[in-house]
Amino acid sequence: MKNRLSVKTSTIIAVVLVAAVMLESCAYFNTLYNARKTYGEAEELREERGGEVDRNLKEKYGDVITKCGKVIRDYPDSKWVDDAIFLMGQSLVRQGEYDKGIRKFIELTTNFPESGYVPKSLYWLAKANFEKGEFNQALLYTQRFLDAYPDNDLKFEVIFLAGDISLALENYQDALIYYSRVASESGKKEYKEEASLRRAELYYQMEDWTNAAAGYESVLGKGMKWSMRYDVSLSLADCYTKIGRCGEALIMYDDLLAEITMTKEKPPVMLGVAESYVCMDSLQAAIREYDIITNSFPRSNYSAEAYFYLGVIYHEKLDSLQLAQEAYSKVSNESASYEYAAVALQRSSSLRRLLELQKSSGDTEGEEAQAEKRFLAAEIQLTRLNETDLALGNYHAVVDSFPQTSYAPLAAYAIGWIYRIDKGDTTQAVEAFTHLIREYPVSPQARGALYEVHLLGKEELKSQLETYVDSAVADTAKIAARKDQIRAEAAAMAAASLDSSITSPVDSLGVVADSLGTPVDSLGVSAASFVTAPSLSDSAVVDSMGTGKVSAVDTTSAPSREEIKKETTYPSGGAADTTGTRKPPQPSGENRGQPADTSPSGRREIR
């Protein structure tokens, strides 16, 4: 009987212990289950909001972190700890706590090297570092993943991410390789389409319009959602205009207009229609389309863009400076936030100044004034309007028509600079700089031209020209010294004339008196003319003390263009164009021609 009770008691105890263990296991499993459920809900909301994580979502992710922390703290020896660590790391990254999330993933890969979450942790380590801006570190983690787990289900997600990281690093060719791998190796249709689209976007960003068009053509299909088909069609049509397939672009834009149901989708397409007309050289049709846009969508980026391109047409195609100036002046009034509002304002100001210079020029002006206006016009055309050829013509006009003015050496230097920098024509550049040095050897621009000849690799010619400059400077110094001597003699003779009259036409110094009693040297130069202050040309060879000493020409340092050219004052609001491009900018509508988005949320995540 006693033994039976003992066995019964033992059985009860065992059952109780098993129940306790099961309850404990259920407790932490339920905690982890609820954490996973909350995380899933948060992810769905984040996707609905386009990847944005607001305060409410952060609180949801915070709830996940709390639950996972409880599992790790209260049940450190359970088999679910690696699950909890991984889920906590994901939630921290979603909250923007990248360093904390990274530490969790490193903890998992270090303490649980056999866990099935190690490959996922490597992917998230790459993702977290990418979002943090540590691109090189992120790329290392993608490579580590691909080396260790080449057949893992996350393979193509990691390759996508490697492409995005390479794009952020501006390693465009590497990015193309990664995207191409997905397009060619993946067996999933959604992966292939996404990779082809990313590749097309990258070609578009690189302005490789032909390959971009081919990429867009490969993904454009009837099964697409309207929003994606709209975006891809806009980009493809834009590529068509860039490669001269103008008619196809116009047809595509017209087809889009026929399908559009929302007013906000119309202006980008209408801008594309106008661009197609320009591509076809149907300028009046393009002008009419731009006018419709300005009237239909006033005070918007679309009307601002329409006015900008009206300015381009009038300025570059129709050579109507007045109409171009008026169109450019309206851009910032339509939308101050428009991408090229500042460029338009600068062009408007520059064209207005050009028009003023043209109206004020006349044959009755002196050569210096005429040369100044031609030179200023050339400077505006070169530095503000990117009209290199027109500027070159005006610079040549200054040198050829007004060679004796102070603007001639400035224009001569600008000619050489254009041939070297803008046109890359070494022969013409050397010829221009050589002409400058031989015609104006003692000018400041000659010093700059010598250095330019050196930069062009013509050392022997530079040596010859340098000798020529030194000789010219020495001759000028002698002339300056002779002028100083004549001034001194004239002053002495003027003082002596107060005491006695001149009895002989030639004095003891061999200076001949002219009919007015003014000493004249043997070259026929009136000595009295040198009693006054030195002229502007003298100042080039007479130092600040008036000693007549001449410093050697310094050819060891390169003067900047700003040091060489004459300072000029331009109208306010016409700051020099700093866009860093010699071609007109190519602005687009809000949905037209957007560059590839390299942000972490720029690609639809394939989970």
Give your account of this protein's structure.
The protein is an all-alpha fold and 607 residues long. The chain has a domain of 135 residues. The chain has 24 helices and 2 strands. A two-stranded antiparallel sheet has the order 1-2. Strand 1 and strand 2 form a beta hairpin. It is elongated, with a radius of gyration of 39 Å. The C terminus is likely disordered.
Q: What is shown here, in short?
A:
The chain has 607 residues and is mostly helical. The protein has helices spanning 2-48, 55-74, 81-94, 98-111, 118-132, 135-148, 155-168, 172-185, 189-205, 209-219, 226-242, 246-259, 266-279, 283-296, 301-317, 321-334, 341-360, 367-383, 388-401, 407-422, 426-439, 444-455, 459-496, 561-564; strands at 512-513, 519-520. It has a domain at 407-492 and 517-565.
Keywords:
single chain, 607 residues, mainly alpha, two-stranded antiparallel sheet, 24 helices, disordered C terminus
Order of helices and strands: HHHHHHHHHHHHHHHHHHHHHHHEEH
Overall shape: it is elongated
Number of helical segments with 4 or more residues: 24
Number of DSSP strand runs: 2
Strand order, sheet with most strands: 1-2
Largest sheet: 2 strands, antiparallel
* Mean pLDDT, all residues: 80
Portion of residues within helices: 55-70%
